[in-house]
Amino acid sequence: MPEPLLRITRLGRRLGAAWIWRGVSFDVAGGERLALVGPTGSGKTLLLRGIAGLDPVDEGEVEFEGRTARAGELPAFRARVCYLHQRPALWSGTVAQNLEAPFSLRANAGKRFDRDRAAALLGRLGRDASFLEARTSNLSGGEAQVVALVRALLLDPRILLLDEATASLDRAAAARAEALLAEWAEPGRASIWTSHDPDQLARVADRRVDLEAWKP
After folding, report:
1. SS3 assignment for 75-123
2. Mind listing the pLDDT tens digit for each residue in 78-90?
3. Residue 27's domain is classified under what CATH number?
4. Is residue 143 part of a domain?
5. Separation of alpha carbons 124 and 137, rounded Å
6. How many domains does the chain have?
7. From the CB of residue 26, how many other CB atoms can be counted at a distance below 10 Å?
8. Which of 32, 122, 140, 151 lies at a C-alpha separation of 20 to 30 Å from 184?
9. Which tens digit of pLDDT belongs to each residue from 96-137?
């Protein structure tokens, strides 16, 4: 049986003395699309950020391609296991500058910004090439999510952690994003979704992981 792309083993996170979740364990195979579910306050965002190494966990391990990411390897790990938040952080400047900036980082050495590919991806999401010159200070929440999604796809990650990543898009734009991500998915890639919209999770996910199973 092939090694899972991502293995979560007995992760636990607490706030103060109280455990939010404990013993969280599941594997993600290449090609899978998971829905992470649980009520508001169950710690879905904390889990995704913990998987990405953006927030600490109090116990357990995250393995990607059979290896645990160490502190010095986290930038390269996050280039492969990419977290997208509902409110993405963008730098000041143009959309094109925001899409190109990550390619200057050491973790992305050997990768090259492809402006034509960026324009094509934006086109799939309902934005023409002129959007590349839009100032990020003028973008709506939905437009910022479009930029963040394209930025992630240009870096060719293996796993996308999609934390309400289309929540600010209208229905038509969200449908375009879902279609694009469905085409992006392949046996060597995987995604984990959270969404306030259960209908969206039913469309985009093959399997559900319920955090209530690990509530202390």
Report:
1. HHHHHHEEEECCCCCCCCCEHHHHHHHHHHCHHHCCCCCCHHHHHHHHH
2. 999 999 999 999 9
3. 3.40.50.300
4. yes
5. 23
6. 1
7. 17
8. 140
9. 999 999 999 999 999 999 999 999 999 999 999 999 999 999
